[in-house]
Write a structure and sequence with these properties.
Layout: E1 2-8, H1 16-33, H2 35-40, E2 43-47, E3 62-68, H3 71-78, H4 81-87, E4 101-105
Antiparallel strand pairs: 1-3, 1-4, 2-3
Pfam family, one: EthD
Protein name: EthD domain-containing protein
Organism: Streptomyces cellulosae
C-alpha cells in the first residue's frame, strides 16, 4: 500500500470553521464525485485539530491521509483530467498553497 499524507493550512482571511466547512461540504464531495477517486482511493481520512490545553497551537488546519494500492494508482488519480481540471484548481479556494506539505510513504504499523 502507498499512503499520501498532506498537511493543509487555511488560506488567509478564512477562519478554521470556514476552512473545515469548505473542505467537508464543498471540496470533499467534489473529489468524491470523480470516477477516478472511486476507482483508486482505498481509504481516505481527514483529521482536524481539537482543543488541547497545555499543547502548542497546531501548524495546520487539517491532515489528509489517502491510501492507494500502488504508486501507479496514485499517479492515475493525480494526473487524470478530472483531477487536473476540476479538483486541483479548487484548492486555491480554501488552502494556503504556500504552506502545503506532503509525503508519499509506506506505512510501518508499530502498534495495532
Amino acid at each position: 500500500m502507498i499512503k499520501l499524507v498532506i498537511t493543509l493550512k487555511r488560506r488567509e482571511g478564512m477562519t478554521h470553521d470556514e476552512f473545515t466547512h469548505y473542505q467537508r461540504n464543498i471540496h470533499r464531495p467534489l473529489l468524491m464525485s470523480i470516477p477516478e477517486a472511486q476507482q483508486y482511493i482505498r481509504r481516505f481520512v481527514v483529521s482536524y485539530p481539537v482543543p488541547a490545553p497545555n499543547y502548542p497551537e497546531p501548524d495546520y488546519d487539517s491532515v489528509v491521509e489517502t491510501w492507494f494500492d500502488t504508486m501507479d494508482d496514485l499517479n492515475a488519480l493525480f494526473f487524470c483530467e478530472n483531477w487536473l481540471k476540476t479538483v486541483d484548481p479548487d484548492h486555491k479556494n480554501f488552502v494556503d498553497l504556500n504552506s502545503f506539505g506532503s509525503i508519499i510513504s509506506e506505512e510501518e504499523v508499530v502498534v495495532g
